[in-house]
């Protein structure tokens, strides 16, 4: 992916400061607080608007690349060229160029989404757009509970936006030894994952050599995005949905929920989690 001619990442820390009145212990204090930003981000492919997502305006190059890969707009990172990023009164517009064959396929899908932090489907024009089935995943690492706990213990210190604002989700790429290699934050869990996928692609991370942790529930779309780029294990801090479990089972992805200090729950393809299956007695 080429470097954009302009970027907003240097202009946006992802939060702003606002005066507040905090009531605590029966006393009121006038303070300045850090508030997470949430603005419309428009992705425009080959001069044609495709999607508007409400997102935190940082790591936008990662977001554009990750969204393009996880939504199967492109198959390889080199197919995406960033033309420019422009801050407008209404939001931020990211202009991108993709090969004609990708543009034709995108037009055929006739998707024009208007996303929100809790929904990436709004505007999907057909059921097959809403519930897209990724190709099956295979391989990937086999981890034990200690490895998962090692990764979870690193999450807090790697989330400066959430530490400052208390309002963002995170998606982290974890090496097979439990060390967090990359992490991205956003007010929307889908956006955080897209940003992470973009960062992983740019860094050359091998999806066979690690696993994913998200600080949110595991919706079907989180499973869909992970499987689309070949990730084999997704651990979520909160619960999965029934459709997420079904999609994980169908695609071969190991889905873990309620991943916390006191334990975790394995919902699909338990063979990648040590101790999740009964030991053979034969």
From TrEMBL:
Major location (coarse): cytoplasm
Record keywords: Cytoplasm, Molybdenum cofactor biosynthesis
Gene3D superfamilies listed in its UniProt record: 3.10.20.10, Cytidine Deaminase, domain 2
Subcellular localization: Cytoplasm
Domain of life, per lineage: Bacteria
Active site positions, chain numbering: 119
Protein name, entry field: Sulfur carrier protein FdhD
């Amino acid at each position: 992916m080429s470097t954009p001619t302009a970027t907003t990442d240097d202009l946006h820390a992802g939060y702003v400061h606002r005066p507040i009145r905090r009531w605590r212990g029966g006393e009121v204090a006038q303070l300045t607080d850090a508030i997470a930003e949430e603005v419309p981000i428009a992705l425009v492919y080959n001069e044609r608007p495709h999607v508007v997502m409400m997102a935190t305006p940082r790591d936008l190059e990662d977001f554009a690349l990750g969204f393009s890969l996880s939504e199967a707009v492109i198959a390889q990172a080199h197919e995406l060229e960033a033309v420019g990023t422009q801050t407008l009164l209404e939001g931020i517009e990211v202009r991108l160029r993709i090969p004609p064959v990708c543009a034709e396929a995108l037009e055929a899908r006739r998707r024009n989404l208007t996303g929100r932090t809790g929904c990436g489907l709004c505007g999907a024009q057909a059921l097959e757009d809403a519930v897209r089935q990724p190709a099956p995943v295979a391989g990937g690492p086999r981890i034990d509970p200690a490895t998962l706990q090692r990764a979870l213990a690193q999450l807090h210190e790697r989330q400066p936006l959430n530490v400052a604002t208390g309002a963002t989700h995170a998606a982290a790429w974890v090496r097979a030894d439990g060390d967090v290699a990359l992490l991205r934050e956003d007010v929307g869990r889908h956006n955080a994952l897209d940003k992470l996928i973009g960062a992983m692609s740019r860094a050359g991370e091998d999806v066979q050599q690690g696993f994913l942790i998200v600080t949110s529930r595991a919706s079907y779309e989180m499973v869909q995005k992970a499987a689309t780029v070949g990730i084999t294990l997704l651990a979520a801090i909160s619960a999965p949905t029934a459709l997420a479990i079904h999609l994980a089972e169908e695609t071969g992805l190991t889905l873990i929920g309620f991943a916390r200090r006191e334990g975790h729950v394995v919902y699909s393809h338990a063979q990648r989690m040590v101790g999740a299956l009964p030991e053979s007695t034969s």
